[in-house]
Amino acid sequence: EKVRFLHRHFYNRFEFVTFDSDVGRYEGFTFLGEKWAQFWNSDPKIMENQRTAVDWLCRHNY
User: In what residue span(s) does the MHC class II beta chain N-terminal domain sit (predicted)?
Assistant: First the structure.
């Protein structure tokens, strides 16, 4: 079965940046969220960790 990993960041009940394992990168929804997404997407270690999180975090809990 398909398993999906979402890493979402909220401030005052408003989502400003998220990582979706189906997309494979961070997406920002505000000015600050776009800056954070750009920074995190440019770091290979962070991206490797997030892209493999569906395997080491989600699948065994599903």
Answer: 1-62
Low-confidence ranges of the chain (pLDDT < 70): none
The rounded distance, in Å, linking the Cα atoms of 44 and 30 is: 23
CA angle in degrees (0–180, nearest 5) for 8-16-6: 15
φ/ψ bin of 31: left (φ > 0), alpha (ψ from -120 to 50), beta (otherwise): alpha
> Looking at residue 55, what DSSP letter applies?
I
CATH architecture assigned to 6-61: Roll (3.10)
**pLDDT at residue 60 in the model:** 76
Torsion of CA 25, 51, 6, 60, to 10 degrees: 170
So where are the chain's domains? 6-61
